[in-house]
Amino acid sequence: MKGRSIAFFLAAVLCLCGAAGCAGEGEPQTHRHEIFYVEERRPTCTEAGMEGYWICRICGATFSDEGGKEPCEPEAFPAEGHDFFREALKAATCEEAGRIRLVCTKCDYEEEETDPAKGHIWGPWLTTRAPSCLEAGEETRFCANCREQETHSIPASGQHKFGTDNVCTACAFVCEPTPGLSYAPVTGEDGNLAGYAVSLGTAEASQVVVAPYYEGEPVIAVAEKGFCDCNGIKTFTSYALLVRIGAEAFRGCTGLRAVELADSVEEVGEMAFYACSKVVSLRLGSGTERIASNAFYGLQALESITVSEENLAYSGEGNCLVERKSGKLILGCGSSVIPDGVREICDYAFHNNCLISCVEVPSSVVRIGTSAFDGCKELTSFTYLGTAEEWERVEKGARWRDYAPFGEVRFGA
Ligand SMILES: [Zn+2]
Ligand SMILES: [Zn+2]
Ligand SMILES: [Zn+2]
Ligand SMILES: [Zn+2]
């Protein structure tokens, strides 16, 4: 069939045999085929092709021969698809996608596609500033492709590791104690020297710093009355792992604004912070096990109470200092919300607090101690979250509400 120059070659052929595809399967042919030639169509990138064949314009039967003797199914050639040449229009970077033009080498079709961003290839983290004990450090890593960098902070350990010379072995910080402080030996249960208890001595600073060691031995306590009535002291910073705050240690220190006890402190003695009338915030660490009932009497400006979550003996829930085992509320402050479950509001718990204005006492409370709300001069609303009958049965200490201006106790949840 090659070389034919006419598209339609007509012929009239009478089929005598009833060939398949002619006038219906198996039926004898009733017409004379009128055959013409359909030229071969080569496939393109996107369209299928077909080999050349002969076809009857009347019945549509197809043949491989001009005479209509050889019925056939002309062979289809599938579309060949484009053959692309890829040309980068914009190179992909680590963070931005690129663009590529696809040009078909066979036809003039072209399209564009995105080349996805490659993503950084990060090198290892490099320490660019080592953390010190109290200050975070920094580490950085670089992308091998684009030099992009990322920076993290490396957390500080949070505390120095002092040698007995008061020099930190980790960061070389030298702790200089306030000159003039006095140190008294503390004898341990075994009769040997356990460490020293610090007191003011002849020191005159308003910002007292206590170093961890004195003459090579640890400073473990603030001596009884150690800083009593030192109202010039504004801050007291201890690098020593104090275990005990002695009786009346800071009594009457009216320059102190905050009391923050480290996790190492186990015991707070009688009236240790008595009448520290300017203290606004009190924070206890995890280790405190024994607090004298009057240790914090007279903190009349106290606004907040916080206790380490890890403290097993005391909780600071609701800005109240509560002994967990007994359910006794030892100390309240201006923002106290008395937690349900408290059994007793201890003697002097809110005494003279000049901030508290509204109290709701849960019905779990069975006793309100002596002078518990005495002198709370802003306390204008007092509600007992139970019935009047239950309130009658609550034990009330002497002067429990003297000078507190709220009128009648209100009832109900
Ligand atoms: Zn026909
Ligand atoms: Zn193409
Ligand atoms: Zn990169
Ligand atoms: Zn250090």
Describe what you observe in this structure.
- The chain has one helix and 33 strands.
- By secondary structure, it is mainly β.
- The chain folds into four domains: about 80 residues, no CATH class; about 30 residues, no CATH class; about 110 residues, Leucine-rich repeat, LRR (right-handed beta-alpha superhelix) (Alpha-Beta Horseshoe); about 100 residues, Ribonuclease Inhibitor (Leucine-rich repeat, LRR (right-handed beta-alpha superhelix), Alpha-Beta Horseshoe), CATH 3.80.10.
- The strands form nine sheets. Strands 13, 14, 16, 17, 19, 21 and 23 form a seven-stranded mixed sheet that branches. A six-stranded mixed sheet has the order 25-26-27-28-30-32, with no helix packed on it. Strands 1-2-4-5 form a four-stranded antiparallel sheet, with no helix packed on it.
- One zinc ion (ZN) binds next to loops.
- One zinc ion binds next to loops.
Indicate the percent of residues in helices.
under 10%
Bound molecules: zinc ion
CATH architecture of the largest domain: Alpha-Beta Horseshoe
Name of the top-level CATH class of the largest domain: Alpha Beta
| Major sheet characteristics | 7 strands, mixed
Using the coordinates shown, work out and report the CATH topology of the largest domain.
Leucine-rich repeat, LRR (right-handed beta-alpha superhelix)
Percentage of β-strand residues: 25-35%
- Secondary-structure class: mainly beta
Tell me, briefly, the overall form.
elongated
Mean pLDDT: 91
Number of separate strands: 33
**Count of alpha/pi helices:** 1
User: Unreliable runs, pLDDT <50, ≥5 residues?
Assistant: 1-12, 14-26
Domains counted in the coordinates: how many? Answer: 4
C-alpha Rg (nearest Å): 47 Å
The rounded distance between the terminal residues' Cα atoms is 105 Å
